[in-house]
Amino acid sequence: MNLAWPLTLGALLFSIGVYGVLARRNAVLVLMSIELMLNAVNVNLVAFSTWIRETIAIGQIFALFVITIAAAEVGIGLAIVLLIFRNRETINIDEIDLLKW
Amino acid sequence: MPTTLDLHAVLPEIILSGTLLAVLVVDLFLRDERKLWNSVIAMAGVLGSFWATLTLIGDHRATFNGMFVVDSFALLFKLMFLAVAALVILISANYLDEGVRSTQGEFYFLLLSSFLGMLLMASSRDFLMLFVALELVSAPGFLVAGFKKRDARSNEAAVKFFLFGVLSTAVMLFGMSLIYGVTKSTNLVAVGQALAHPAARSEPLIVASILFIVAGFGFKVSAVPFHFWAPDTYEGSPVPVAAFLSVASKAAGFAGLLQLMFVAFPHQSNVWAPGFAIMAVATMTLGNIVALAQTNIVRLLAYSSIAQAGYMLLPFAVVGGAGPAVMRQAFAASLTYILIYSFMNLGAFAVVIVVNRKRSSNLIADYDGLMSREPGLTTAMLFFLLSLAGIPPLAGFWAKFFVFSAAINGNAAWLAAVMVLNSVIGLYYYLSIGARMVLRPAEDQSRIGVPFALAAAIILLVIIVVAVGVFPDFFNHFSPRSTLVAL
Amino acid sequence: MILAATGPEIAFWGFAVVAGIAGFFVVGSRNVVHAALYLVGVLGSVGAIYIVLGAEFVGWVQILIYVGAIVVLLLFGIMLTKAPIGGVALDNNQRPVAFIVAATTFGGLTWIIWRTFGGTRIRLSPTRTAQIGNSLFTHFVLPFEAVSVLLLAALVGAIVLARRD
User: I need a labelling partner for C79 at 20 to 30 A (CA). Which of A8, B187, B429, C44 fits?
Assistant: First the structure.
């Protein structure tokens, strides 16, 4: 298999994630877009790891750590989003602008 | 094949991990009125960890397959982080006890987890370890920024900080994954060697990856244009958290950035140094100019710390294609500035916490006539403000001086000039606060009362700021011995 | 290229197309719950791709954790925050700029990737889970322990923030 194709998929997912972060208003949707970007990173890491084929499989281990830490961050993020929702009844980030320039 | 573990090398981290678990467990058994004991346990652990770090001085150890290294750079940063941790515990104790009392234990637990991440960061010499340490530093930061649960501004601070934080991590990781593909390694030293002679067709990829990685770390150190989260987050968080973020998180970010740029990417310095020049100038200038317009002291300190980050970035900008001597000097200059800045900024925030106890609005107008109400406190604040401005014979002057000499020796005199200009702007707003404190009449003539813990912290910080100002060679003993590879 | 495609390559292409299309719908859908479900599509396909590439353990962990836990968390978050399901606009007015930035990023990255790795070929062979386990607990034990502290901190902190008091 040509290595460049999995990497292109990685680039595609990353760019879609970038679009999502910039274009979406809802905080949970922005978080989902960031998850897409993290998946892009993992695709790169796993693709490189299977190409390099070293015994300690750094790329795959790195991908495992990214998955784990992404899970922790989603937990944190949703706790914070819940806080906002309780106080403001909305989680649209452009409506949350008490703190100004 | 078992790895030999050098447990003495990780003793500081082990002690701190034990402390954070102890705080969590003991907190279960403490009644609300006794929750202050959490801070005592936390402090004991930090001091124990500090002692353990002192026992490692003079060593150079690498363990965990080269991921974790103990050298002078690592030790210097660890000692600084632990000192900052002790001071942060001191300045938070009363704030927490009078505010979010029931969750004090969890607060100290989160703070200590973040400091554990910082200790690991100082010793990390591998992409994976840097990433894990960075997340361990940041994640508790997101959480404690939102600790004032019913305050809408605190929630907003936390969510903006969080989203920016995770986004920048994703971008940084993307860059790291590409570098891994090109160099087939994640160890910083190995990457540096592999990138010494890259294939021509890989050059754009390497440049793009470095850009992504710098963007990720740029967020952490609040460099422009990644600084947008900082003023809002500092203003919305509890004040001790703002102090913690402005000092500790920033220093941890710089620790990682220093290792990355000077160990993994020194051969690409022709490419990234100009980028850092733009970033440093933009950061200094924007921070200083916007600070002039602020009426809220925490926001002003936020912009001031953005500007200070600009001064810390400046040495990165002077090493484009430079020789080893210039690189070493720039590395040392940036490192010294980071250390000195941490203590003076922490001092300023400590004073803000004291005033905050009486007036939670945090307006600069609250500081009018402070001299007549609390002369000792005002004098301390004057020391911190003048040091931040860079006035001799205080520590801040030497910090700026070392960066200035690094710029001159690196043939970047124009950058040195920009820094001096910016320092003048900074001087204006630092002095105007000082003038207000001394000259204007106070609206409310009552005394504020400085609690013991805060007073101890402030006195210690004043001593440090003055002592380093009078004996600047203190830091220079350590810096030249930091490991810089292949320079 | 298509003529010489082997089984794994065809499988990869299939899953990659699914992942790409689902990804577009995640960021474009007008219904938050639908977006979460398309996210399942992306995450599942990516997990399948890992298995095709030979990284079996990572593939199953992806499905277990990402699809099995993270998406569930996101769905809880959506339900508890009464997310809009149709009707309310989910996008801000930066869509054109966002599209340009995303397209430029994709174009730039693809050009760079093909320039550097254009002709390199992977020899697919499965990675034994024992190898990963060995590596994780000997070579990478320090980040492993650090991540466990991180998970504990995230757990405690999230509970403190999210509980009603």
Answer: C44
